[in-house]
Amino acid sequence: MSKQKIGSTSDVQEGKGKQYMVNGQSIAVFHVNGKWFAIGDKCTHRGGPLHQGEVEGTVVTCPWHAGQFDITSGQNLSPPAPSKSQTYKISAEGNELFLDI
Ligand code: FES
Question: Which residues does a 6 A CB cutoff place in the pocket of ligand 1?
Answer without folding.
Answer: 43, 45-48, 62, 64-65, 67, 80-81
